[in-house]
Amino acid sequence: MSDSVIRLSGFYYAYPQSDVLLKEINLSVEKGSFTAIAGPSGAGKTTLCRAMTGIVPTYYGGRYAGKVEVLGEDIRDKKISDLAMRVGIMLDDYESQMVSLTAGEEISFSLLNHGFSPDAVDARVKEALNDVGLPDRENYQLDELSGGQRQRLLLASVLATRPDILILDEPVSAMDPDGARSLYALVDRIHKDHGMTVVVVEHDLNYLLPYMTHMVLMEKGEIKVQGPFEEAARQAFSQESLRANLPELWRIKLGLEAKYPVTLQDWRSEAAAVQELAERFEKEKDHD
User: Which of 23-32, 216-225, 243-252, 276-285 has the lowest mean pLDDT?
Assistant: First the structure.
């Protein structure tokens, strides 16, 4: 597809001294999409994210076959540092990505390494902190910030390079449900405000239901289902081994459609589901 910003074709990968982990990956990520990647632990989700940024195989080594293209270019022809300006990644172990003492220094680090002027760095630091809801925190020490604020800070440091693509690998794994919902609402706002392509690895797709446009389900290093969310959800529901990955609301929705002669709306929240079911119930009452 001409509007794909990430494309993997026949991609296989094995870490050094390991068996093949990713097997015949064929995947296209559409420009401007919000793509969720899910599957059991060990399915290869994190490695797939690393392949999208070029750090697999360039940094980790190992054996691979096939092709990975990012923004229309083969990653084998690009430097990792150049890709990092176009593709931002936030790991689940976010603390390991932090290198500085203050919030401003944390965001400035990669910009200075890429030769931005001090004035440009200052402007981008302020903009990035505003984007993530941490205005005027440039001089805060990292230990003065809560865990959730440090996670937002890392997101700000990724956004400061103004990447075309944002890849998040289980970014809420250490957060409580309220914090997780808040972070994903922020990511969705950034996605829409900046027209950014977003890829998120998340084991609990209930958090992403309001936002995702596309879904990828993995199992044992292979992609089992991929595509626009509704299409992929219907495919997954038809396979018992994949059904549990779906958001709970959609398991209910597709279960009702399988049992009764109805086609329900695109439920993205409990409120939408309750409203539709209540309206259908009222119509049935009126017909009695």
Answer: 276-285
Q: Give the whole-number percent of the chain exceeding pLDDT 70.
A: 98
pLDDT for the residue numbered 287:
67
Count other Cβ atoms within 10 Å, centred on residue 197: 23
